[in-house]
């Protein structure tokens, strides 16, 4: 038995050595002719012809939007409804796939769409910097254009569209620092981000540190919430309890989480753990509910960005990719939408603040 | 005169008078099917495969999805293999999902945060998995904690550790590390086959071989089946149990490494819920949750089915949670199936094993009517006993030229009584089976049909030598009918071939009562050539019993105990290969046939027909209920305690009948041998062999013990044909 086993193993090892091991780095074999088609437009265009050609180019094109979560999530609902309206008008076949916060499932959905060639343009919302690398590669090879929204992936795809997170974080952190200086509060802040391994969290932390470090501020802790309100509230409550008034602001990466953090701070103030209005809650983006919280005084300010613009830009980019006729993966661009700091004084006058789900 | 090979075996089924439908024994077929060991997993597995076919037929899942399904099946399949081993060993491992998470995140932290070289990361991940498995193993095997609660606790604990690790290093984790080894594991290929698949295939083969072919595998199955008896058999139970968890952990660690390489998920939920997927897969694959039984190959089919179902929910864009619901429903359904099927399969197989058939017998001759050839008399009563109280159930005997008598014994012995006056005897040979028919071959060597073993030749020193114990197995038969287990009577033809009756391919020789009640064409007649090769010459015969070469050596007489008839099988001449009736509708169930010295044949009856037993042959359902609900000794059977011997000639005429009306000395006669003017009366339930002096006008010049056509004795067998 033992001898047989040894012989078998040796044979298998030899076979493998002889057969050779290979590594498919994917990216090196870019697209070929796949996905490449004729450009829709030339240098000149007839007025009515353009309308017809644009519709013809998009007619029947299958476009899939795979966010990390869709139902009941204003941010992606906003993008999705914009896309649905725009692609619907153009006669394209648009569908949203909802992995419901399950990365495994998201990967499987994308794999399935690519394997079945069931889509022409993929619009992705990457939960994790590295995780969709192979899926984007495979899509490119299959001639499928990829547009990544808001959370950049280490494999870029044809285009990235989203908020300039680092810049937005810097802007809002400057505002936070100003507020802290005004109050003469301690130079200490806490970061509350998402899972911590995603582009949004990483860039948010980076931007915050860019401002805080030279200003001599200390980040007492970085808590990860997995984007869950309950976890955000829990983290804020325990940090508040530990730090009491020895902290001046929470830098929360996600607006809805910021509401939960605001609740925790308000609760601590009510119970007398901290002085009222002694801790600011700052975030990025401004959902309608966040705006309500702002008006209620629970949160302080946000680097609101053009959420609807992200959806619109994705629609535009998808049209450009289809009309441009270049093979999938032959161009790589990163584009940002606008952002600005909003607080109670200007929130009702700022068009990009208080976005809705539809 | 050489017996040519028969062009094909004779199907004796028409002799039963049954229709084509009577040929089928549906209950018994079901019983045989249920009795197959592979049926344990086949039913759940069949249903599972059906389910996946249904999914592929009703959803857009197609061949294009195959690589995706296999990719997923690879990582979760490793878990399923580990879980199968643990389940076979009688445990359960719920912590595998968290081990995957911890190993996966750990490997990425080691590579991205601690900058370990991959040569270290790869073995470390697997070792870490083993170590976590060892924690389970220690708690379960040494501390004797319950597997379910232990691994449930470690599922939570390891999951928490994974989350803590992710939280501590989330920043570094977010930045992918480029390394050829990562790429090779995640997207590489060995000879064109993706690395993950190769790893899985190697593990599958090694574990399958280990589980089914090695001592280690048998130990695991033994421990899983019954810990106590495993311990009593000297199996190191604790060590075996410990090892199963270590293996499961190591495989989970490997799966974690592969998933880290393939997907690079860096959130703390990696591996969460995988234990449910693996568990569903193994249960779908027919691995028993009760332990002791399961196969990694079937578990692999299970995981593929689970992945097909998942792909179905994804391709149809079903609601996110629907997959979990479907998975849970499938797990529940198949767990119930496992429980009930496992419980009732054997029971049903046992219950349906005896499936009586219908046979049609002619009108019954009334032997109690005075003045007929059958009229009861006392001719056998005064036979003098040989070996009284020493012999137990000599079914047949053989007497050599010197008058030494050899007879069987149900304890497996062959007795030898030296000369006509020896009543003490000695044990001549020990066969180990149930010695039934006796005959002499050309060289005057004793041939014995040993029930349960086959045909044996017994040398002068009493050493038994196997002549034949199997025939070729019938094709398409669920039941293995290759063994000659119910060999009953035999005789030798002039060319040296041995014809032997094998009264049932299903029951053992000792279970002749079952065969008598079942009345199915389960028996056959087999020819054993001098070179030892065997061939079935008559198949589907109801309880073929007596075998006797006719006086002219051109045919064989075959008695059917079940059908109460004797037929002639021509082995030479123009009718070679044909079966023709000699005696039909006998009033009893005939047993061994032997030649008489006057050119006729002796035929005893093992039992006599009664109106009641005749009625029962028409109602198989009554007999089925009887066999299921009444113990064997209360079965209604033909009248067994009789002693009746008849003499008949080649034309099928009954020449005379002898009885022992007292039933005191020879209550059952199963064989009659004639030698030197005496009849030797044997009975399978008698405690003696009887020796009866024949009238001089009953004795002829032929030596019944010699093979026809081989002696100088004149043959009287001139039969009109």
Per the principal axes of the C-alpha atoms, what is the gross shape of chain A?
A: globular
What's the level 1 CATH class of the largest domain in chain B? Answer: Mainly Beta
Helix content of chain B: 25-40%
Report the biggest beta sheet of chain A as strand number plus sense, adding barrel if it closes. 6 strands, parallel
CATH-assigned fold name of the largest domain in chain B:
Neuraminidase
Give an overview in words.
- The complex is a heterodimer of chains A (358) and B (721).
- With 358 residues, chain A is α/β, with parallel strands linked by helices.
- Chain A has helices spanning 2-19, 47-58, 74-90, 103-115, 133-141, 165-183, 199-215, 229-243, 255-270, 288-295, 307-324; strands at 21-23, 62-66, 93-96, 121-124, 145-149, 159-162, 188-193, 218-224, 249-252, 280-284, 301-305, 333-336, 339-342.
- Chain A folds into 2 domains: 52-163 and 307-337, Rossmann fold; 165-305, 3-Layer(aba) Sandwich (Rossmann fold).
- In chain A, the strands form 2 sheets. Chain A has a 6-stranded parallel sheet with strand order 3-2-4-5-6-12, sandwiched between helices.
- Chain A is globular, with a radius of gyration of 24 Å.
- The relative contact order of chain A is 0.14.
- Residues 26-36 of chain A have low confidence and may be disordered.
- The longest helix of chain B is centred in the middle third of the chain and has 30 residues, at 322-351.
- Helix content of chain B is 38%, strand content 19%.
- In chain B, the strands form 7 sheets. In chain B, strands 1-16-15-14-13 form a 5-stranded mixed sheet, with no helix packed on it. In chain B, strands 21, 22, 23, 24 and 25 form a 5-stranded antiparallel sheet that branches.
- Chain B has 18 helices and 28 strands.
- In chain B, 54% of the residues are buried.
- The chains are: A alpha/beta (358), B alpha+beta (721).
- Chains A and B meet through helix 1, strand 1, helix 4 and helix 7 of A and helix 3, helix 7, helix 8, strand 2 and helix 9 of B.
- Strand 1 of chain A pairs antiparallel with strand 2 of chain B.
